[in-house]
Amino acid sequence: MCCAAPMDNTKCDILLVEDDELDQMAFKRFVEQSSLPYDCTIAACVTEARSVLAEKRFDVVVSDYSLGDGTAFDILALVKDTPTILVTGAGDEEVAIKAWKAGAYDYLIKDIDRNYLKTVPITIENAIRHRKTEEKVQLLSGAVMSTDDSVHITDMEGKIIFVNRAFCETYGYTEEEIIGKSCDLLWMGSGRGDNTENVFQAASGGSSWAAGFYHKRKDRTIFPVSLSQSKITDAKGNDVAFVGIARDISELIFVENELRTENMELSKRRRQNSELAYTALDAVNRALAGAQIDRARSIADDFLTIMRIDTGRMELERTEFDFAAVVRQAVEALSSCATEKGVKLMSCLPDGQLPISADCRRIAQALRNLIKQAVVSVRSNGHITVEVEDTDSQIAVRIEDDGCVMDNSRMQNIFNRSAWTKEQLAQGLNDLNLGLPIAKEMVEMHGGCLWAESGDNGRNTVCFTLPKSRLQAGVHSGSVSSRQV
User: Fold this and answer.
1) Strand 315-316 versus strand 60-64 pairing type
2) Is it true that domain 312-484 has CATH number 3.40.605.10?
3) CA–CA separation, 4 vs 27, rounded Å?
4) Within 13 A of 306's CA, how many CA atoms are on the CB side?
5) C-alpha 188 chain-centroid distance
6) How far is the C-alpha of 455 from the C-alpha of 197, rounded, in Å?
7) Is the pTM of this model over 0.85?
8) Does residue 267 have a pLDDT over 90?
9) Between 466 and 416, whose confidence is greater?
10) Where are the domains of the chain?
């Protein structure tokens, strides 16, 4: 007697649809005598089978073709997702074939001695195995189709025979356009091979490195991918296809480059700050040696201000105030210094108030720094004009002097803390003035811009703008960190 237990040795739920009581008894007796691990439920007609199927799901359905109130085709319509084995009488092979085409898994020919029962166990086992294989294939297919990685399968000659959704979205081809084409279409160069132009160093760390590849979309744009490829073998171990899984790493490389640039910038800033700290300490010591306590305190305060800006600890206390009053106060405070040098310092303001939302103390500090530097650099009997213009959205300030005309490159360097510090040291100055770089950063922290220019009129001009509105992009009311502005 030919018997077979289920593959995983668990009991199978079997529904037998059979209207002949003798055949029902023969089936049950065969299961008991063969010690088959079946939980067998019997339905005598289509109506009864419909009722049973509404309450329970079975692993396999075994149905006679001719039933009292219908046929096995009615059963097939009820159990589309369950393997169904059709049992037909002798000479009903044509009916069996039609049922097989309608979705039956297999069919058995019922003989008078009921020897067909001997083939039931292996047929059931094969049906369950087939269903599980189909479920795995569907699960695998669903996973491949839903993954965000681009999957393509080629035959042994490199012809593409399968692509998933992500592949079509990434490469720009429809499934119909790419199936049957050579996978060489995907490569930047002439094809796969050993073409080194397709390969790049994706990441490095010490002496180790990882390779990436350049692929090409339908529109011929080039993009970087990480790519893994493996062979597919059949049941006999023969290589039958290749599967490639590609991931667009454009964003990853962009982020890595950004991080690398940021790290280089941080290293450069640390080095510059170390040099600045040494220079500031030296200047403070010289000031203290000359009993210039106020000057030493000013240098130390400027250095601490720059460190607070770099570490994001500089906060702006925004209030509403009259910018015109701040300009008048700054000009008045520096008038004595200008007079001592024989420099004429004047301001040109529009009528009325200039309301602005900003940190009054920091804006006043930046303005004083700019005017003070103009007083220092202009020659005796020179002129300095502070001109303010009110526009709809911002306030524009021009500080113009008739000192020695500087070229534009040097004009920009005086606001770069590193370049300005090096220039002062190169000139052998015993003092350290950080007021100009601080002024620029203060203006930019408020969402404004600062620049310098020298014109054909023989005058140097420093310009800056400040937004009037409190609601600037990235700025919140109240105290804000310098990194938020």
Assistant:
1) unpaired
2) no
3) 15
4) 26
5) 24
6) 50
7) no
8) no
9) 466
10) 12-142, 147-248, 312-484
Nearest Cα to Cα of residue 451 among 416, 484, 403, 404 = 416
The token pair at 268 is: 């450069």
Q: What is the pLDDT of residues 314-348, one digit of tens each?
A: 888 999 999 999 999 999 999 999 999 999 999 99
Of residues 95 and 424, which shows the higher confidence score? 95
**How far is Cα 236 from Cα 216, in angstroms, rounded to an integer?**
35
Lookup result for tokens 């000009």: 331
Could you tell me the CATH superfamily of domain 12-142?
A: Response regulator (3.40.50.2300)
Sign of CA dihedral 170, 174, 175, 179: negative
**Which CATH number describes the domain made up of 147-248?**
3.30.450.20
Q: Which residue has the tokens 């020919």?
A: 109
